[in-house]
Amino acid sequence: MKQAKLIILCSIIILGWSVFVGAADTTHNGATMNKFTEIFPRGGENTAYAQYFVGKSYLNMLSTQGAVIANVTFEPACRNNWHIHHATKGGGQILLCTAGRGWYQEWGKPARELHPGDVVNIPAGVKHWHGAAKDSWFAHVAVEISGENAKNEWLEPVKRGRLYPASLSCAEKAQYIVGISSPKFGGLG
User: What domains, with CATH codes, occur in the chain?
Assistant: First the structure.
């Protein structure tokens, strides 16, 4: 019950809070930071998990008591590898999107574009990845759901051709996978 209240409180703060923290005027892959503001302070470079990311991410642990909650910031085109949150009971992850534009994808399904205010519920055992769009910084709060025998399994990097927006027709998806460019294709570069 404590964990549920903590998650609800965190969600209310994140989704209802006015953005007060300014951002540095930094440019990366053509995306400027002066229009990217985060609710929580950006943490240091995520060196502990860098081997599981393509690109640079930043990690700020918000809570490690009761529930593990972290603010994760991705530079443009940064994404984590495919991974699974395992648990024999309970477990999983909730992503609360707070800034920028990103992507989430489950294995075998089209990618879903993410914007501030979006919430992603990831059950235990689901192979997935998440990260920034190629032209935008992205931040989310990751809430680890406690579970029995919970552990993360890090897998292979995401291949570029596996990412396409769900709104595309079959012909457009085929063009996207073989690399034909179109302004409709907002995926990773």
Answer: 2-161 (2.60.120.10)
